[in-house]
Amino acid sequence: MASPFQVTPGAVVFDLDGTLIDSRGDIAAAVNHALLKAGRVPLAAGVIAGFVGDGARSLLARCAKLPETDPALDDLLERFTEYYVAHPTDFTKWAEGAPQVLDRVAELELPIALCTNKPRAVTEAVLSALGVRTRFRAMYAGGDGPEKKPAPGPLIALAKRLGLELGALVMVGDGPQDVECARRAGCRVVGVVSTYSARDRVVSAQPDVVIESLSELPEIVRRWCDSTTRLQAIRPR
Asked: Which of 43, 63, 140, 180 has the highest CB neighbour count under 10 A?
């Protein structure tokens, strides 16, 4: 597989929770609603936040201390999803500068896409409530296919939907699962230090670049576009 740095960036793919939005309050509310309805003990929001990143079923399994194959999770997941869809942004807010970053990436004439392990119904509800559902050219959410991050399937599917080779995707995320997904798919990847992930956790995943603020992203992507174009211009034919 050719290095992604030999391919001009053609789209920027964002993770959602922790990268574009701070949704810890709404996730905690939906989890505790499901736990209480099932007669289980609710958890502190900080504890729940530490379990976020690998999809709703994994989250609920960790919170309920159940294996992911336990049938009891089916009811918990249904209650979680129903509540979250009805209350998508009671406490959710944008990550600092995120709307402006989406605008600046668009100014580079690059489509933006979304790659999240969050369930599709919840993701749609959150994006609609924030008024940005139509901003994303393509989206892959939890349950859209047989794989979830950190497996490469989500980015492979997005590349096909966008009509791009995998090396043209730039993945942006705050979790190790985002970095591993991109690495396995053969994409460039930017790690973002967020309220969800400590800096050492992001750095240890070894993304191509680590940024302290999402606002740094557009300039990095612009430089990658320029440098790859120059490399292609001088490459022997």
From this structure: 140
